[in-house]
Design brief:
41% helix, alpha+beta, 4-stranded antiparallel beta sheet, 5-stranded antiparallel beta sheet
Amino acid sequence: MLTKSNLIIVPIEDSANDIHSRDVIGKKSDTTAGDSLVALTKIVDSVVDGIDTKADTISTAVVTTIPGTITTAQSDITAIKAVTDVLPDAGALTTIDTNIDDIETAVVTTIPGTITTLNTAVITDIPASLVTIDTVVDTNQDLLDGTTATPTAYRREYGVAQIKATTIDLEQAAASYDLFTGTTQDCILESLSIRLPNVDCSDDINLTSITIQTDDVTPQVIFDSTDGAVANLTAEAQLAYTGAIYIKVGTKVQLTIAGGASDAATVCDVVTKYISNVDGGYLA
Protein backbone atom coordinates (compact mmCIF):
# COMPACT_ATOMS: atom_id res chain seq x y z
CA MET A 1 0.00 0.00 0.00
CA LEU A 2 1.32 3.47 -0.92
CA THR A 3 1.83 5.50 2.25
CA LYS A 4 3.37 8.79 3.13
CA SER A 5 6.36 7.04 4.57
CA ASN A 6 6.85 5.11 1.34
CA LEU A 7 6.66 8.22 -0.81
CA ILE A 8 9.26 10.17 1.14
CA ILE A 9 11.79 7.39 0.89
CA VAL A 10 13.86 8.83 -1.97
CA PRO A 11 17.32 7.55 -2.81
CA ILE A 12 19.87 9.89 -1.36
CA GLU A 13 23.25 10.82 -2.72
CA ASP A 14 25.96 8.28 -2.11
CA SER A 15 29.08 10.39 -1.77
CA ALA A 16 31.21 7.41 -2.35
CA ASN A 17 29.54 6.47 -5.61
CA ASP A 18 28.05 9.75 -6.76
CA ILE A 19 29.17 9.24 -10.30
CA HIS A 20 26.79 6.23 -10.90
CA SER A 21 23.05 6.71 -11.66
CA ARG A 22 22.31 3.07 -10.98
CA ASP A 23 22.63 3.71 -7.31
CA VAL A 24 19.51 5.91 -7.50
CA ILE A 25 17.52 4.14 -10.23
CA GLY A 26 18.09 0.62 -8.97
CA LYS A 27 17.78 -2.72 -10.74
CA LYS A 28 14.94 -4.57 -12.38
CA SER A 29 15.06 -7.18 -9.70
CA ASP A 30 14.51 -4.69 -6.87
CA THR A 31 11.44 -5.48 -4.71
CA THR A 32 8.98 -3.15 -3.03
CA ALA A 33 11.10 -3.54 0.07
CA GLY A 34 13.91 -1.53 -1.51
CA ASP A 35 14.58 2.25 -1.79
CA SER A 36 15.41 2.60 -5.49
CA LEU A 37 13.16 4.23 -8.10
CA VAL A 38 12.40 0.73 -9.41
CA ALA A 39 11.31 -0.38 -5.95
CA LEU A 40 9.14 2.73 -5.46
CA THR A 41 7.57 2.19 -8.88
CA LYS A 42 6.70 -1.38 -7.91
CA ILE A 43 5.10 -0.05 -4.72
CA VAL A 44 2.88 2.29 -6.79
CA ASP A 45 1.97 -0.52 -9.19
CA SER A 46 0.98 -2.73 -6.26
CA VAL A 47 -1.28 -0.03 -4.82
CA VAL A 48 -2.85 0.61 -8.23
CA ASP A 49 -3.53 -3.13 -8.66
CA GLY A 50 -5.25 -3.17 -5.26
CA ILE A 51 -7.40 -0.19 -6.20
CA ASP A 52 -8.30 -1.84 -9.51
CA THR A 53 -9.33 -5.07 -7.71
CA LYS A 54 -11.57 -3.14 -5.30
CA ALA A 55 -13.00 -1.18 -8.23
CA ASP A 56 -13.84 -4.48 -9.95
CA THR A 57 -15.53 -5.71 -6.76
CA ILE A 58 -17.56 -2.47 -6.49
CA SER A 59 -18.46 -2.72 -10.17
CA THR A 60 -19.68 -6.29 -9.71
CA ALA A 61 -21.78 -5.21 -6.73
CA VAL A 62 -23.26 -2.26 -8.65
CA VAL A 63 -23.90 -4.24 -11.82
CA THR A 64 -24.98 -7.61 -10.37
CA THR A 65 -25.33 -7.95 -6.57
CA ILE A 66 -27.25 -4.76 -5.76
CA PRO A 67 -29.77 -5.13 -8.65
CA GLY A 68 -30.29 -8.77 -7.59
CA THR A 69 -30.89 -7.70 -4.00
CA ILE A 70 -33.29 -5.00 -5.18
CA THR A 71 -35.12 -7.57 -7.34
CA THR A 72 -35.41 -9.92 -4.35
CA ALA A 73 -36.65 -7.09 -2.14
CA GLN A 74 -39.20 -6.12 -4.80
CA SER A 75 -40.38 -9.73 -4.97
CA ASP A 76 -40.75 -9.80 -1.20
CA ILE A 77 -42.69 -6.52 -1.25
CA THR A 78 -44.96 -7.91 -3.98
CA ALA A 79 -45.62 -11.03 -1.87
CA ILE A 80 -46.43 -8.90 1.19
CA LYS A 81 -48.75 -6.73 -0.90
CA ALA A 82 -50.54 -9.86 -2.18
CA VAL A 83 -51.31 -10.73 1.45
CA THR A 84 -52.28 -7.22 2.55
CA ASP A 85 -54.55 -6.79 -0.47
CA VAL A 86 -56.86 -9.57 0.80
CA LEU A 87 -56.99 -8.38 4.41
CA PRO A 88 -60.49 -7.31 5.64
CA ASP A 89 -61.42 -3.67 5.43
CA ALA A 90 -61.09 -1.36 8.41
CA GLY A 91 -64.61 -2.15 9.63
CA ALA A 92 -63.92 -5.87 9.71
CA LEU A 93 -60.66 -5.27 11.54
CA THR A 94 -62.57 -3.15 14.04
CA THR A 95 -65.02 -6.01 14.52
CA ILE A 96 -62.14 -8.43 15.03
CA ASP A 97 -60.65 -6.05 17.56
CA THR A 98 -64.00 -5.79 19.34
CA ASN A 99 -64.34 -9.57 19.38
CA ILE A 100 -60.86 -9.89 20.82
CA ASP A 101 -61.83 -7.36 23.50
CA ASP A 102 -64.93 -9.44 24.26
CA ILE A 103 -62.83 -12.59 24.52
CA GLU A 104 -60.46 -10.80 26.84
CA THR A 105 -63.39 -9.68 29.00
CA ALA A 106 -64.70 -13.24 29.07
CA VAL A 107 -61.32 -14.65 30.03
CA VAL A 108 -60.61 -11.98 32.64
CA THR A 109 -64.10 -11.50 34.10
CA THR A 110 -66.94 -13.70 32.84
CA ILE A 111 -65.27 -17.10 32.95
CA PRO A 112 -63.78 -16.59 36.44
CA GLY A 113 -67.21 -15.38 37.59
CA THR A 114 -68.86 -18.45 36.10
CA ILE A 115 -66.27 -20.68 37.74
CA THR A 116 -67.00 -18.96 41.07
CA THR A 117 -70.72 -19.57 40.54
CA LEU A 118 -70.10 -23.22 39.65
CA ASN A 119 -67.86 -23.56 42.66
CA THR A 120 -70.64 -22.18 44.86
CA ALA A 121 -73.07 -24.61 43.26
CA VAL A 122 -70.76 -27.57 43.81
CA ILE A 123 -69.91 -26.62 47.38
CA THR A 124 -73.27 -25.24 48.55
CA ASP A 125 -76.24 -25.48 46.20
CA ILE A 126 -75.86 -29.05 44.93
CA PRO A 127 -75.29 -30.56 48.41
CA ALA A 128 -78.33 -28.63 49.66
CA SER A 129 -80.36 -29.90 46.71
CA LEU A 130 -79.20 -33.45 47.40
CA VAL A 131 -80.36 -33.10 50.98
CA THR A 132 -83.74 -31.87 49.72
CA ILE A 133 -83.95 -34.74 47.23
CA ASP A 134 -83.04 -37.22 49.94
CA THR A 135 -85.81 -35.80 52.12
CA VAL A 136 -88.31 -36.11 49.28
CA VAL A 137 -87.20 -39.69 48.58
CA ASP A 138 -87.54 -40.56 52.24
CA THR A 139 -90.99 -38.97 52.31
CA ASN A 140 -92.10 -40.88 49.23
CA GLN A 141 -90.69 -44.10 50.64
CA ASP A 142 -92.66 -43.52 53.83
CA LEU A 143 -95.77 -43.11 51.68
CA LEU A 144 -95.02 -46.27 49.73
CA ASP A 145 -94.33 -48.48 52.72
CA GLY A 146 -97.22 -47.04 54.73
CA THR A 147 -95.14 -45.33 57.40
CA THR A 148 -96.92 -42.12 56.44
CA ALA A 149 -100.52 -42.07 55.27
CA THR A 150 -101.02 -41.15 51.62
CA PRO A 151 -102.39 -37.59 51.35
CA THR A 152 -106.11 -37.46 50.69
CA ALA A 153 -105.65 -35.19 47.66
CA TYR A 154 -103.39 -37.79 46.03
CA ARG A 155 -105.80 -40.64 46.69
CA ARG A 156 -108.58 -38.62 45.04
CA GLU A 157 -106.70 -37.72 41.84
CA TYR A 158 -108.30 -38.46 38.47
CA GLY A 159 -108.03 -42.11 37.50
CA VAL A 160 -106.50 -43.27 40.80
CA ALA A 161 -108.26 -46.33 42.24
CA GLN A 162 -109.97 -45.61 45.55
CA ILE A 163 -111.43 -47.99 48.12
CA LYS A 164 -114.34 -47.21 50.41
CA ALA A 165 -115.56 -49.61 53.09
CA THR A 166 -118.56 -49.55 55.42
CA THR A 167 -120.75 -51.95 57.44
CA ILE A 168 -124.49 -52.55 57.65
CA ASP A 169 -126.77 -54.66 59.85
CA LEU A 170 -129.15 -56.83 57.82
CA GLU A 171 -131.42 -57.41 60.83
CA GLN A 172 -133.18 -54.07 60.52
CA ALA A 173 -136.63 -52.95 59.53
CA ALA A 174 -137.51 -53.17 55.87
CA ALA A 175 -136.17 -49.95 54.28
CA SER A 176 -133.39 -48.53 52.11
CA TYR A 177 -130.16 -47.65 53.89
CA ASP A 178 -127.36 -45.45 52.48
CA LEU A 179 -124.03 -47.15 51.84
CA PHE A 180 -122.08 -44.55 49.80
CA THR A 181 -122.70 -41.03 48.41
CA GLY A 182 -120.95 -39.39 45.40
CA THR A 183 -119.08 -36.30 46.66
CA THR A 184 -117.33 -33.27 45.07
CA GLN A 185 -116.79 -34.84 41.62
CA ASP A 186 -118.47 -37.62 39.62
CA CYS A 187 -117.02 -41.11 40.03
CA ILE A 188 -117.11 -44.50 38.31
CA LEU A 189 -117.95 -47.43 40.58
CA GLU A 190 -116.00 -50.46 39.30
CA SER A 191 -116.69 -53.16 41.88
CA LEU A 192 -118.62 -53.81 45.06
CA SER A 193 -118.55 -56.75 47.49
CA ILE A 194 -120.68 -57.59 50.51
CA ARG A 195 -119.60 -60.26 52.98
CA LEU A 196 -121.75 -61.78 55.70
CA PRO A 197 -120.31 -62.59 59.11
CA ASN A 198 -120.20 -66.14 60.41
CA VAL A 199 -123.96 -66.00 60.89
CA ASP A 200 -126.53 -67.91 58.81
CA CYS A 201 -129.47 -65.73 57.76
CA SER A 202 -131.04 -68.27 55.43
CA ASP A 203 -133.54 -69.45 58.05
CA ASP A 204 -134.65 -66.00 59.18
CA ILE A 205 -138.44 -65.81 59.39
CA ASN A 206 -138.94 -62.14 58.42
CA LEU A 207 -135.89 -61.31 56.19
CA THR A 208 -136.68 -62.26 52.62
CA SER A 209 -133.95 -60.57 50.52
CA ILE A 210 -131.57 -57.65 50.12
CA THR A 211 -130.80 -55.54 47.05
CA ILE A 212 -128.12 -52.94 46.32
CA GLN A 213 -128.72 -50.16 43.79
CA THR A 214 -128.34 -46.41 43.16
CA ASP A 215 -131.09 -43.97 44.12
CA ASP A 216 -131.29 -42.55 40.56
CA VAL A 217 -134.74 -42.07 39.00
CA THR A 218 -133.78 -45.12 37.00
CA PRO A 219 -131.76 -47.08 39.57
CA GLN A 220 -128.58 -48.85 38.52
CA VAL A 221 -128.94 -52.30 40.10
CA ILE A 222 -125.82 -53.90 41.55
CA PHE A 223 -127.49 -56.89 43.24
CA ASP A 224 -131.14 -57.68 42.64
CA SER A 225 -133.54 -59.63 44.89
CA THR A 226 -132.58 -62.91 43.24
CA ASP A 227 -128.87 -62.39 44.00
CA GLY A 228 -129.74 -61.21 47.50
CA ALA A 229 -132.41 -63.80 48.32
CA VAL A 230 -132.27 -64.91 51.95
CA ALA A 231 -131.42 -68.46 50.84
CA ASN A 232 -128.06 -67.06 49.55
CA LEU A 233 -127.27 -65.26 52.81
CA THR A 234 -125.47 -68.12 54.53
CA ALA A 235 -122.61 -67.75 57.00
CA GLU A 236 -119.61 -65.90 55.44
CA ALA A 237 -121.35 -65.79 52.05
CA GLN A 238 -120.20 -63.06 49.63
CA LEU A 239 -121.90 -61.24 46.79
CA ALA A 240 -119.55 -59.59 44.30
CA TYR A 241 -120.10 -57.14 41.41
CA THR A 242 -117.71 -55.97 38.70
CA GLY A 243 -118.60 -53.42 36.03
CA ALA A 244 -118.91 -49.66 35.59
CA ILE A 245 -121.63 -47.52 37.14
CA TYR A 246 -121.55 -43.73 36.82
CA ILE A 247 -122.07 -42.10 40.24
CA LYS A 248 -123.04 -38.42 39.95
CA VAL A 249 -122.31 -36.01 42.77
CA GLY A 250 -125.09 -36.55 45.32
CA THR A 251 -126.08 -39.97 43.99
CA LYS A 252 -126.40 -42.61 46.70
CA VAL A 253 -125.63 -46.31 46.65
CA GLN A 254 -128.20 -47.96 48.94
CA LEU A 255 -128.95 -51.40 50.40
CA THR A 256 -132.64 -52.25 50.63
CA ILE A 257 -133.90 -54.80 53.18
CA ALA A 258 -137.09 -56.68 52.29
CA GLY A 259 -139.08 -58.37 55.06
CA GLY A 260 -137.75 -57.11 58.35
CA ALA A 261 -135.65 -57.84 61.39
CA SER A 262 -135.76 -61.38 62.73
CA ASP A 263 -133.14 -61.84 65.43
CA ALA A 264 -129.75 -60.57 66.61
CA ALA A 265 -127.78 -58.12 64.52
CA THR A 266 -126.08 -59.46 61.40
CA VAL A 267 -123.42 -56.89 60.52
CA CYS A 268 -121.97 -57.25 57.01
CA ASP A 269 -118.82 -55.69 55.50
CA VAL A 270 -119.35 -53.73 52.27
CA VAL A 271 -116.37 -52.62 50.15
CA THR A 272 -116.35 -50.76 46.82
CA LYS A 273 -113.56 -49.80 44.41
CA TYR A 274 -114.00 -46.70 42.23
CA ILE A 275 -112.15 -43.86 40.46
CA SER A 276 -112.82 -40.15 40.27
CA ASN A 277 -113.65 -38.65 36.86
CA VAL A 278 -111.99 -35.38 37.90
CA ASP A 279 -109.43 -34.69 40.66
CA GLY A 280 -111.14 -34.53 44.04
CA GLY A 281 -114.09 -36.90 43.58
CA TYR A 282 -114.81 -39.56 46.20
CA LEU A 283 -117.54 -41.67 47.79
CA ALA A 284 -118.46 -40.69 51.32
